[in-house]
Task: inverse folding
């Protein structure tokens, strides 16, 4: 039987968008069929979205993407003004991105573990598995505990996940978990940090459903009967809707489906509820392998979303692919085409800080 | 072009578990292969889960299930003591179940609409589409507005989704939306009502991500700078964890994946964070068509969850099927075998009411 | 490590259509959504197909169906005049159906073998695995050798697979592998036998691609330079086309996709090539989980087939389900509705015997 | 309504492997997870397969690949000694590759046609659809008729598909359908031509199941009672097995599943039947989106094949992706790594010509 050290010896390494100029490949793929052509069309829509400088770009993340080697790619999108807001599952942002920001790694699992043959053994060793990837559960517990401490450090009141994640970014800066601080502190770049520095808000609409949730449970347990931090999912929705009001032209780049997809689509209706005749999302891309035929939202087509008045039909594209293959191609095309060269970054966190001030008066 | 009335003329009708004795079919399927055998094994595990009267049964709902005709089946599970808590997407509970409780219907869409050919036309008519099903968007707006009013009627403070949904149940009783009130008020049975009456708590961990969210946005917009209702997702997680502490033996019946699956699995770890050495979920069933190979949680195997210490390996079964086919067979088996005949219902809402009192001291 | 005997101790048992009256279930499912409604509609189309006594029903089989417990169901369809011709992969007919007719069984594999963890061990024991099912490779070699002997016993000339499979039926009768011969010879009913007795032709368009192929290779190796049996796939296509010419109204009940689906659809075009303006298949049902988005035929929609002029648009239904769940419901509905009560069986083998005579003049 | 000319105005263009150096991308992907890592590992196995100069490489093709823009890529593999034999569905080789060799094109279909909305209209215009691709049915009829003429020109006897396809190659040369003949004759390079010139045998084990089948039906209809061409699928299997005997080390590069996958895997067993203790396929790669959970062969894992003694466990990799995305990466890696630089091409057609001579003595 392998030791824990032996099992955790090949770290996942993150793909660097800057190293792979896929522009000619995309140009070739647009004359083909199936996923190749869909991927090329998605890349072109992302290019259009970025060249339309009025457009605010919302990146949606579902599925275990950071653990799969896509962290650096997303950091690049944030730092290159190619994304204005992120809506994500908690796992991507906390358990995976923030976790790596704490200097921990994900590890490559041998093929023999993929289908569950070694899970009892992994349990013994406190190794958690995501398909073909390993995580050291003891390190994950440190992540949980860090979130607990951040929660404890906050003034007791309801927070949107966006506000909380901003505090996580501040914590990284304060604790030297930055590339600048570098080797002394094991600091690296991360999505939470980049978004903090670039004023890109991050929303996790089901924020308790991740490592942060364990911190919240511990916090609320200790504070029973006293003022405590709470995580207001309504506030998340309110804030994201404010962005739609402030910036009517929007586009969605969605990796996977789930809550992030639904949440980001719904702000068009929410704006309407607030009495503003908001335009549908003008551009929309989704990368997924989810099937449409079970009627679940994750695989539902963007055409279906147009019947709800959420997504415009003109520039929408579903891409049927696992994300580690399609996202480097779609994002890489826009990166190497310099589609965002005229963009400055919307600094949306600043809009929301103003909303916050109003609210707190 | 069809009129709205023509398009909305064939209501979805809900399957009645009591009418279909599938016990012999399940007994035949256990000697076959593939999904038939998996379905039979899942049915047997559900039977075991119910006969193990110590076991608290948590039903997880993701995907558009109520709109698909599964409302009555789930009501039957609640009323027959076959479920002790529900963790769901907001859409199932609010946009679909509560929506039907308001006397509205979902409608059968003609096959020609399934792939999006008529979505522009549907948009014009204010008809929303879920794959092969239609919804009257004007009725949905009434549902949104009802939620807005319920929100406004509450004392301003952070609520768990569970507390809020209980208020929705109370509203149904108060407004005659019950089978007893019957024809005068258009009242029908619903999951929200049955759960209210049977003290079965319902959690929606991403509660803003549904029709209720529109009500919250309107509410918080009006209350800016004033005390307001907030939806505390941390409290959801805290409460569900309390149930695990109060009732250590648990089983999961999961339809689809997404946030509900992750959330319900995670309470084992959360209990551990609170210093209690909680046992893994002893029984676990998941019905899904999600693929395992993209590494996303929805399709991840229950074996994988065992590496995280969340699900025990002994009695777990993945069923690869769209839910409208598999759930009537699995639930119907346990119903007609009277697997729950010795169960009284855990009345878990009462445990949580006590937690609430402590908190509010 | 388990012994071979221990591993092969739970035989697959075949579902008996007659035991499960699913008519009420189908009637309930037609008012639901997704696969439930699709299954109900498919059941109704099969009912219509059978009541339209002009219609010749072609059953297409792909995937490992017989090993999964569907043998008896298909035998029932043949014996109840619910099928007039079969187009299949070789594996279903030879390696699985004929194999069981030789008194061998398929066996239930433990869940731990499903994902390949024990395949090296199985190799040692000469146990072959189909997902969750085991086969004794030594018994399969006897099946191969039986086919070799049947091949050797034939007059050397080109045979359609249909002619050859008819000889396999004759061999079963001659060797007492029938239910009548019973316990003395281990005889059981089988698709090959029932089709032989009911004059239902069976075609395997890629007939070498199965256990029979091994017999052919051995036969042709021994006969090098001498007259030998050959398997004329062109003749298969010619014969199936003759059936379309003799019986213009046709319907397809397709389980899985692959070659059988394509082959059966193509006879409309082939008839056209022979100068006959053949009508498209009037009814068509396909049960499959194959995805449409990779452009492969197996998952291609029946609408797509209509663009080729192969399948009529009016009565076609794709059912998204693994076959062990959906086929018992679809076939069971028609069986218990007695949809075929006015049918006598088309005796299509007799038409082809006449074609054969002409050819051999 | 669009005219036929308007609908058929954007030809599919084939990706040129030589233009896209994906080596750095593959090197990055091997440190990621999911399909990226699987794709990288498959690329590495293909590299190993080619550097092992003893290894005969068998390329299996299922799904509509040529129509999707992969023709030139496969031609490049053949002309660069990266493939020694091909096992394919008939559609890829005849309806698509030979069809394009006749100077016809496949065309890009607008997104609105993808799900079947325009199929009735397409039928009127004699346009056939493959998911998002159009074919001119009148041109396809010319292809059918060409095959009919080639069939008529042959000496009446049983042919393997391999022999017949070689005649198709000869026909292309004779009729100036070559790049050399060029603009005068509309000649282009094709798989059938390249394989003819490079002595790479092509097998279509279900050869009637394609455009060629229509030619065969017409031919056999005209020759009733006279000597005729027949297509001996047994001979295909015998010939492919001879290659395994002559060249014991083999590797499989499989695109899709179906008959080609099964057929190529089975030659290990067939060799055994001929009394030769053949080694399993030493290397095996399959690109597919087929699900494993329905037990069908197309999605069955290569580990499962190892239980049958067909594929060695050491160097096998399933890649979960639609082929237009994964194949350019896998094949491009080996091409740009010059993995085949020490290979000369096995000239396997010459081995089979000798087998043929023996047989015909």
Result:
């Amino acid at each position: 039987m392998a030791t824990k050290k032996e099992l955790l010896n090949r770290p996942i390494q993150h793909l660097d968008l800057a190293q792979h100029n896929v522009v000619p490949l995309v140009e070739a793929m647009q004359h083909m069929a199936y996923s190749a052509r869909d991927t090329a069309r998605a890349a072109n829509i992302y290019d259009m979205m970025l060249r339309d400088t009025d457009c605010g770009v919302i990146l949606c993340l579902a599925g275990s993407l950071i653990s799969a080697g896509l962290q650096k790619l997303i950091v690049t999108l944030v730092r290159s003004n190619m994304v204005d807001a992120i809506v994500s599952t908690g796992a991507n942002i906390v358990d995976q991105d923030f976790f790596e920001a704490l200097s921990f790694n994900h590890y490559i699992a041998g093929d023999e573990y993929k289908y569950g043959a070694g899970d009892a053994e992994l349990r013994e060793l406190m190794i958690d598995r995501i398909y073909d990837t390993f995580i050291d559960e003891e390190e994950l517990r440190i992540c949980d505990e860090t979130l607990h401490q951040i929660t404890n450090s906050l003034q007791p009141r309801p927070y949107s996940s966006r506000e909380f994640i901003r505090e996580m970014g501040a914590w990284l800066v304060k604790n030297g978990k930055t590339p600048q601080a570098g080797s002394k502190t094991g600091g690296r770049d991360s999505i939470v940090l980049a978004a903090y520095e670039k004023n890109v808000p991050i929303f996790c609409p089901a924020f308790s459903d991740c490592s942060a949730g364990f911190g919240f449970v511990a916090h609320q347990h200790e504070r029973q009967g006293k003022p405590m931090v709470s995580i207001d999912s309504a506030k998340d929705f309110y804030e994201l809707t404010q962005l739609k009001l402030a910036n009517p032209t929007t586009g969605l780049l969605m990796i996977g489906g789930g809550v992030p997809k639904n949440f980001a689509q719904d702000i068009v209706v929410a704006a309407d509820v607030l009495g503003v005749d908001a335009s549908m999302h003008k551009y929309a891309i989704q990368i997924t392998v989810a099937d449409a035929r079970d009627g679940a939202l994750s695989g539902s087509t963007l055409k279906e979303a147009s019947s709800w008045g959420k997504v415009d039909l003109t520039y929408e594209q579903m891409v049927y692919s696992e994300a580690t293959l399609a996202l480097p191609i779609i994002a890489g095309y826009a990166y190497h085409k310099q589609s965002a060269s005229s963009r400055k970054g919307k600094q949306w966190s600043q809009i929301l800080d103003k909303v916050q001030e109003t609210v707190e008066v």
